[in-house]
Amino acid sequence: MHLFRTGGGAIGGARVNGRSASCVGQLLRIFVGADALWQGQPVHLAILTLLRDRGFAGASVFAGIEGFGSHGEIHFDRLFASDRKRSMLVEIIDTEERISAIRPQLEAMIDEGTITLERIEYVHYLSSR
Protein backbone atom coordinates (compact mmCIF):
# COMPACT_ATOMS: atom_id res chain seq x y z
CA MET A 1 0.00 0.00 0.00
CA HIS A 2 1.48 3.33 -1.02
CA LEU A 3 0.10 6.57 0.33
CA PHE A 4 1.19 8.91 -2.43
CA ARG A 5 -0.44 11.55 -4.53
CA THR A 6 0.97 13.52 -7.41
CA GLY A 7 1.36 17.28 -7.51
CA GLY A 8 3.36 17.82 -4.30
CA GLY A 9 2.47 17.60 -0.65
CA ALA A 10 2.86 14.78 1.84
CA ILE A 11 0.76 11.79 2.80
CA GLY A 12 1.69 9.12 5.35
CA GLY A 13 5.21 10.50 5.84
CA ALA A 14 5.95 10.60 2.09
CA ARG A 15 7.17 13.80 0.47
CA VAL A 16 5.77 13.82 -3.05
CA ASN A 17 7.35 15.83 -5.87
CA GLY A 18 5.93 15.25 -9.35
CA ARG A 19 6.59 11.58 -10.26
CA SER A 20 8.61 10.61 -7.19
CA ALA A 21 7.94 10.25 -3.48
CA SER A 22 10.59 10.39 -0.79
CA CYS A 23 9.65 8.09 2.09
CA VAL A 24 11.05 7.14 5.47
CA GLY A 25 10.88 3.44 6.18
CA GLN A 26 12.87 0.41 7.23
CA LEU A 27 15.14 -2.01 5.40
CA LEU A 28 15.30 -5.53 6.77
CA ARG A 29 17.99 -7.84 5.40
CA ILE A 30 17.97 -11.60 5.92
CA PHE A 31 21.10 -13.65 5.20
CA VAL A 32 20.46 -17.39 4.81
CA GLY A 33 21.98 -20.34 2.99
CA ALA A 34 20.57 -21.22 -0.42
CA ASP A 35 19.93 -24.74 0.86
CA ALA A 36 17.87 -23.54 3.88
CA LEU A 37 14.31 -24.86 3.81
CA TRP A 38 10.99 -23.86 5.37
CA GLN A 39 8.21 -26.44 5.14
CA GLY A 40 9.88 -28.15 2.17
CA GLN A 41 10.62 -25.08 0.04
CA PRO A 42 13.63 -22.73 -0.07
CA VAL A 43 13.31 -20.31 2.84
CA HIS A 44 14.00 -17.27 0.64
CA LEU A 45 11.06 -18.23 -1.61
CA ALA A 46 8.82 -18.88 1.41
CA ILE A 47 9.69 -15.42 2.77
CA LEU A 48 8.92 -13.73 -0.58
CA THR A 49 5.59 -15.55 -0.81
CA LEU A 50 4.63 -14.51 2.73
CA LEU A 51 5.54 -10.87 2.09
CA ARG A 52 3.71 -10.71 -1.24
CA ASP A 53 0.61 -12.29 0.30
CA ARG A 54 0.70 -9.72 3.13
CA GLY A 55 0.93 -6.80 0.68
CA PHE A 56 4.42 -5.56 1.56
CA ALA A 57 5.86 -2.66 -0.43
CA GLY A 58 8.70 -4.71 -1.90
CA ALA A 59 11.26 -7.46 -1.44
CA SER A 60 14.12 -8.87 -3.50
CA VAL A 61 16.42 -11.88 -3.26
CA PHE A 62 20.10 -11.74 -4.23
CA ALA A 63 22.48 -14.69 -4.56
CA GLY A 64 25.89 -14.31 -2.93
CA ILE A 65 28.99 -15.16 -4.94
CA GLU A 66 31.42 -15.47 -2.04
CA GLY A 67 31.33 -14.85 1.69
CA PHE A 68 31.57 -16.35 5.14
CA GLY A 69 29.36 -16.45 8.18
CA SER A 70 29.45 -17.45 11.83
CA HIS A 71 31.34 -20.70 11.15
CA GLY A 72 34.18 -18.87 9.37
CA GLU A 73 33.98 -21.18 6.34
CA ILE A 74 34.26 -19.34 3.03
CA HIS A 75 31.29 -20.15 0.80
CA PHE A 76 31.52 -19.64 -2.92
CA ASP A 77 29.55 -20.37 -6.04
CA ARG A 78 31.87 -21.57 -8.76
CA LEU A 79 30.46 -23.37 -11.77
CA PHE A 80 32.72 -26.42 -11.53
CA ALA A 81 33.27 -26.56 -7.76
CA SER A 82 32.31 -29.80 -6.04
CA ASP A 83 31.06 -28.01 -2.91
CA ARG A 84 28.79 -25.21 -4.14
CA LYS A 85 27.55 -23.42 -1.04
CA ARG A 86 25.85 -20.13 -1.69
CA SER A 87 24.31 -17.52 0.56
CA MET A 88 21.08 -15.70 -0.19
CA LEU A 89 20.13 -12.17 0.81
CA VAL A 90 16.48 -11.16 1.13
CA GLU A 91 15.91 -7.39 1.30
CA ILE A 92 12.57 -6.02 2.45
CA ILE A 93 11.48 -2.37 2.37
CA ASP A 94 8.35 -1.12 4.12
CA THR A 95 7.28 0.91 7.15
CA GLU A 96 8.87 0.23 10.52
CA GLU A 97 5.47 -0.79 11.90
CA ARG A 98 4.79 -3.40 9.20
CA ILE A 99 8.29 -4.87 9.44
CA SER A 100 8.06 -5.04 13.25
CA ALA A 101 4.73 -6.85 12.95
CA ILE A 102 6.02 -9.54 10.54
CA ARG A 103 9.44 -9.99 12.17
CA PRO A 104 8.42 -12.79 14.62
CA GLN A 105 7.14 -14.87 11.68
CA LEU A 106 10.33 -14.26 9.70
CA GLU A 107 12.50 -15.19 12.69
CA ALA A 108 10.54 -18.44 13.12
CA MET A 109 11.34 -19.37 9.50
CA ILE A 110 15.10 -18.99 9.90
CA ASP A 111 17.02 -21.89 11.41
CA GLU A 112 20.44 -20.34 10.84
CA GLY A 113 21.24 -16.90 9.46
CA THR A 114 21.36 -13.20 10.27
CA ILE A 115 18.83 -10.36 10.21
CA THR A 116 19.82 -6.69 10.03
CA LEU A 117 17.56 -3.64 10.33
CA GLU A 118 18.16 -0.09 9.13
CA ARG A 119 16.04 3.04 9.11
CA ILE A 120 16.11 4.38 5.58
CA GLU A 121 14.88 7.12 3.34
CA TYR A 122 13.96 5.89 -0.12
CA VAL A 123 12.59 7.43 -3.26
CA HIS A 124 9.66 5.71 -4.95
CA TYR A 125 9.22 6.66 -8.61
CA LEU A 126 5.65 6.73 -9.82
CA SER A 127 4.66 5.74 -13.33
CA SER A 128 3.64 8.59 -15.61
CA ARG A 129 1.17 6.31 -17.42
Compose a concise summary of this entry:
This protein has 129 residues and is α+β, with helices and mostly antiparallel strands. Helix content is 19%, strand content 44%.
User: Measured on Cα atoms, how large is the radius of gyration?
Assistant: 17 Å
| Helix-strand category | alpha+beta
The main sheet comes to: 6 strands, antiparallel
Q: Element order, helices and strands?
A: EEEEEHEEEEHE
**Number of DSSP-assigned strands:** 10
- Mean of all residue-level pLDDT scores: 81
What is the total number of structural domains? 1
User: At CATH's second level, what is the architecture?
Assistant: 2-Layer Sandwich
Estimate what percentage of residues fall within beta strands.
Answer: 35-45%
Number of continuous helical runs: 2
Portion in helices: 10-25%
Report, as a whole number of angstroms, the end-to-end distance.
19 Å
CATH topology: the name is Alpha-Beta Plaits
Unreliable spans are 1-12
> What spatial form do the alpha-carbon principal axes imply?
globular
CATH class division: Alpha Beta
